[in-house]
Automatic annotation (TrEMBL), chain A:
GO terms for cellular component: plasma membrane. The chain crosses the membrane at residues 27-52, 72-98, 110-132, 144-172, 201-219, 255-275. Residues 72-273 form the ABC transmembrane type-1 domain. Belongs to the binding-protein-dependent transport system permease family. CysTW subfamily. Residues 1-20 are annotated as: Disordered. Pfam families: BPD_transp_1. This is Molybdenum transport system permease.
TrEMBL record, chain B:
Residues 1-47, 71-90 are annotated as: Disordered. One of its GO terms (biological process) is molybdate ion transport. InterPro entries: ModA, ModA/WtpA. Keywords: Metal-binding, Signal. Residues 1-18 have a biased composition (Basic and acidic residues). This is Molybdate ABC transporter substrate-binding protein. The lineage of its organism: Bacteria, Bacillati, Actinomycetota, Actinomycetes, Kitasatosporales. Pfam families: SBP_bac_11. The gene is modA. The keyword Transmembrane helix does not apply. Signal peptide: none annotated.
Length: 283, 315
């Protein structure tokens, strides 16, 4: 599972051009080259079109509004918080799945990946039923602690974590499976506890995989729409993240929506490019 | 394009579309399947795909070889054939109706009624926020009829020259406060919604119910801060149904459609913010004949009865 996880964003970041050229001049079978180019064009064309049709002249004006930056800041804060939360519980979960034996482990792994295939809106409804004011858990949170999660920034973080964490878990679990368990075993035979071995040996060993998973999760959280708008609603400055702002702007002012999309695109590219070195070591 | 190519004699400008309304008299009236035009093939795919597509394709081939002299494969041409060629009961194919989310219940009923009246037809609905629907239509979604929840959203389509004829207002809708069953917070006026601690959701101002809510609040001189601006009226109502919000400003029709899951509270300021519902036949309608019949049904006395039963006001 690490392979696709690590290579895909690497591809987005653009592999080293030198390699591609060298291989290109040698023998690349046409049956592979043509579909590959078609795939690349298919992925890039919509993004290029966004750039072509962008209202460049009005762009400064479009981006001058405080709402845009409010939404962007909220998006960055929430996506980062969701990633940290995913790391906090996702890495141990991945370790559990990769390094321990327990009945029904296959089922648990399938359930962990469920949010990957679940339509995010369904995830949002499920979150409402769990953590809503009247939800299975939410009603106790409300009556005991007076905490309500829907319509709050915390709600946004939860929704994003729900959708993004599986990316991290899958990526880290794959890395763990690929990592040699004998290093940990050696550490434990030398007297380290299993937790110390995890902290001092395993974690540094799988760090690139963790980083890769974290970036994937962050990117997914940044783009989260369905679960967020369903669970946390839409209120500027509190729960209106960039994707929500883009969607609502699209309804009455497509130019503004394109401008917002450009900002989101630029941020994503900047982050992915900035982390490319890590990616390379990961793969 | 591909579908048309088997016939080498295809007309020079097959996409003339709207200008080429109606089959020329020189062209023999085609088979029964004819009103299934090339463009509706896409929308029909939902049901019995292979059969329908094959049928439509065969009809097209027949028609093309039988009638080579004109731009008869334009989408709207088929509509004329449907409505004038046979004064009634000869409609067929799928009518694709894009309608505002608040019309879901009443239009679904009218759709069934229509299918019963015209056997062989099928009404396919796409319910959603009027703005997104308008956006899909202007970007080329294959639809026959557009029923919007506000004049402004219909304008998006008319401005893009997407309608055939002037849209007609067929209903009006009024806002109501939706609360949990039994109205536990004892909300009786619009002003009650501004009480602190009360969680109110509104529609986003970009959708008609949000614009109406803003108008009503302005008319009442109230400043209301909701917990969320929802993307359409049904999501706003759902938040109350799930008891995540204490109240929402939604349409009367939505409250009625939700049955006993919510309770409606009327407020006088809603009269200041009535929403007009315009309906229009679209210019690029793949099945214009049947579509026109559907529009007629909506404006007929029977259609109006269904709408008023659902809580709409007459225009």
């Amino acid at each position: 599972m690490t392979k696709p996880a690590t290579t895909t964003p690497g591809g987005v970041g653009g592999g080293p051009r030198r390699t591609r050229l060298r291989r290109g001049t040698r023998a690349v079978p046409v049956p592979l080259l043509l579909p590959a180019l078609a795939g690349l064009a298919f992925l890039l064309l919509p993004l290029v079109s966004l750039l072509v049709r962008a209202p460049w002249r009005d762009l400064p004006e479009q981006l001058a509004s405080a709402e845009v930056w409010q939404a962007l800041r909220l998006s960055l804060v929430c996506a980062t918080s969701a990633t940290l939360l995913s790391l906090l519980v996702g890495v141990p979960l991945a370790w559990l799945l990769a390094r321990t034996e327990f009945p029904g482990r296959g089922l648990v792994r399938a359930l962990v990946t469920l949010p990957l295939v679940l339509p995010p809106v369904v995830g949002g409804v499920a979150l409402l039923l769990a953590f809503g004011r009247n939800g299975v858990v939410g009603q106790w949170l409300d009556s005991w602690f007076g905490i309500t999660l829907p319509f709050t920034t915390t709600g946004v973080v939860l929704a994003e974590t729900f959708v993004a964490m599986p990316f991290l878990v899958i990526s880290v679990e794959g890395t763990l499976r690929a990592a040699d368990p004998r290093y940990e075993e050696a550490a434990t035979t030398l007297g380290a506890s299993r937790f110390t071995a995890f902290r001092r040996v395993t974690l540094p060993l799988i760090a690139p995989g963790v980083a890769a998973g974290a970036v994937l999760a962050w990117a997914r959280a940044l783009g989260e729409f369905g679960a967020t708008i369903t669970f946390a609603g839409n209120f500027p400055g509190r729960t209106q993240t960039m994707p929500l702002a883009v969607y609502l702007a699209l309804q009455y002012d497509p130019a503004a929506a394109i401008a917002l999309s450009l900002v989101l695109l630029a941020v994503s590219i900047a982050v992915l490019a900035g982390l490319r070195d890590r990616w390379m070591t990961a793969s | 394009m591909h579908r048309r190519s088997p016939d080498g004699r295809r007309p020079p400008d097959p996409d003339k579309g709207p200008d080429a309304v109606g089959l020329p008299d020189s062209c023999p009236r085609p088979q029964r399947e004819w009103p299934v035009s090339t463009r509706s093939v896409r929308s029909i795919r939902r049901t019995r795909p292979a059969l329908r597509v094959a049928g439509a394709g065969a009809a097209l081939l027949l028609a093309l070889s039988a009638c080579s002299s004109s731009g008869s494969d334009s989408g709207s041409g088929s509509g004329e054939a449907g409505s004038s060629g046979s004064s009634s009961g000869k409609l067929s194919g799928t009518v694709t109706v894009f309608a505002a989310a608040s019309l879901k219940e009443s239009f679904t009923e009218l759709g069934k009624e229509f299918e019963e009246r015209h056997p062989g037809t099928e009404v396919a609905f796409n319910f959603g926020g009027s703005d997104s629907l308008a956006a899909s239509i202007t970007s080329g979604a294959p639809a026959d009829v557009f029923a919007a929840a506000s004049g402004r959203t219909m304008e998006i389509v008319t401005k893009a020259d997407g309608t055939a004829g002037t849209p007609a207002v067929f209903a009006r809708n009024q806002l109501e406060i939706a609360t949990a069953p039994g109205n536990p917070d004892r909300i009786s006026t619009l002003k009650d919604l501004t009480r602190s601690g009360l969680k109110v959701v509104l529609c986003d101002e970009s959708v008609p119910c949000g614009a109406a809510a803003r108008k009503a609040l302005a008319a009442a001189g109230l400043d209301l801060t909701p917990v969320s601006y929802e993307q359409d009226v049904k999501s706003a109502l759902t938040k109350v149904e799930l008891d995540e919000a204490d109240a929402a400003l939604v349409y009367k029709t939505d409250v009625r459609a939700a049955g006993d899951k919510v309770e409606g509270v009327d407020f006088p300021e809603s009269a200041e913010a009535l929403n007009d519902y315009p309906i229009a036949l679209l210019k690029d309608a793949p099945n214009a004949g049947a579509a026109k019949a559907f529009v007629d049904l909506v404006s007929s006395a029977e259609g109006q009865k269904v709408l008023t039963d659902a809580g709409f006001r007459k225009p």
